[in-house]
Fold each of these.
Amino acid sequence: MLDVSELVQPENGLIHPSIYTDPEIYQAELEQVFARSWLFLAHDSQLPKPGSFVQAYMAEDPVLVVRQRDGSVKAFLNQCRHRGMRICRSDEGVARAFTCTYHGWAYNLAGELVNVPMQERAYHNEIDKSNWGPRRVPRVHNHKGFYFGTWDEDAPSFEEYLGDMVWKLDAMADRYDEGISLVPGATKWVIDCNWKFAAEQFASDMYHVPSSHTSALVALVEDPQILAELHELNLTVPGRQFSGNGHGAGFALRPDILPSQSGPEFDAWLDAHREEIYRRGGEQRALAANGHNTVFPNFSWLDINNTMRVWHPRGPGQIEVWAWTFVPQGAPEEVRNEIRTSTIRSFSPAGVFETDDGENWTEIQQVLRGHMARKSLFNAQMGLGHEKQGTDGMPGRVTDDMYTEMAARGMYQRWADLMSGLSWQQIAELDRNRQQQEVHTA
Ligand code: FES
Ligand SMILES: [Fe+2]
């Protein structure tokens, strides 16, 4: 068992860089973090009818997510039980059954083995097909059209796992009467960095924006006066950060502005739907949909850029990003199109902001090839000791500023608890004690 207390000390804001590079730690993460957590699988709009399926990954494990004939959704490992070939090799589609391309074993929509070629001649009719279906994802939960799954029978319910983060997830998922849908197709690309750099930044890091994204702003805004004003706004705008159960979110608060970065069509549409948006979740929640978010461990989104993604880990030094653009289901084509093109420009493999972020993460990963570089502790102490509970009546643990690393420390705390092999019950107990201590010292 790894001594996790040597690796991260959330209470002191210290991180040992080996957590981003060590192959042994990475293997332990697959087992202790990813195989125990609730992971995003698919959205309703990707599975419009019975037989609709999409590929997903639970960390490195490929899974198939399939709409059943009764409307429910099942997920199972995309691994044939004969010799382990992928059962289905298409990214998405509609199927009546899945036939392995290697030797032709066939599985139905529920993932049951239904046909074995030459069953009589080759197997002498002795194979019990009911034993040889792919491994099922035992728990799949539908939260407002978002399907999450976990391998862990002992994990808490999805609601309990999400905790107060539900407020932020619903600010995106439950914003409109007609819901949201994903623009068809995911954008997928590889970044040579550890998954935690991406997940942590989306959980906790508004701080990089004025520095890292200046180049993008310079490219986008020609007028130096407006550029200076934008920079000033970044430094002075009020904001909040949320942390709970390892999840994190941060957002700027600009009273009375329903944020969008897409363009005039979407702005006008949002304005016309202001009453509806406020009615669904309250004005505060609507205005808080203006920032960055991560549901632990690796599902992230940016509200105003309409991008959501999973950071699939690919070894300690690489991730495969799967990103989708979300749009209001009820919006007309022009609005959806404006959002789509704006998201491509800002957050996609060649997006002006996305490339700034990826550049930072790959550089750090390069630096960490150094022996001495891997020995130097990182500082995650911003705002340490200034965490507050329930600022402005917002649910959960919220600070009075978005420039803090409370959510990063929260993420590494959950990571450390899971990596230590603690049971979910022990983790819940520890969290309660930590919160009580915080109330006492506050
Ligand atoms: S590996 Fe799938 S049928 Fe042989
Ligand atoms: Fe960024």
Amino acid sequence: MNGATKTAIQFTLNDAPVSALCGPTTMLLDLLRDQLDHKGTKEGCGKGECGACTVMIDGRAINACLFPALEVEGCQVTTIEGLVGPRGKLSPIQQAFVDHGGIQCGFCSPGMIMSAHALLTSNPDPAEDQIRAALRGNLCRCTGYVQIVDSVRGAAVALRRTEAGQDAKGGPQS
Ligand code: FES
Ligand code: FES
């Protein structure tokens, strides 16, 4: 890669415009972690097999370890950092993973949560088989998936309540 021509790209990262220089073999995961200091996205296998590196590009969950950075030119990229609310408040999906025990060692969690976020963005009330299908590319060696599926279900309920103007427990929002 040394000496390879670098190209300037612009895209939106977690609602903020960013610019970066990338070579033809730079992967989005390396751009995010090494150049842009967004280390919430994890590297597991580096081969598209574990889902630890999942981020959203224009609303779709993708493996950042295999996605050429040059291809995010003009795109909206969302990482786990982009889900956190004001003053570090966890998003409903992150909170549901905490509440339902979907986080054990936590290494797979950012990718798992981003896949769940992509699912719930397009399908606010998924059935269990739809949740399991959406998480098929995300490997977790800790939880056996029961708590993770519960977490996504819990997140779906919390998000629907938020949409309806209720707090996460079903009461009126203050
Ligand atoms: S690190 Fe990208 S799929 Fe494993
Ligand atoms: S919580 Fe440990 S690998 Fe998923």
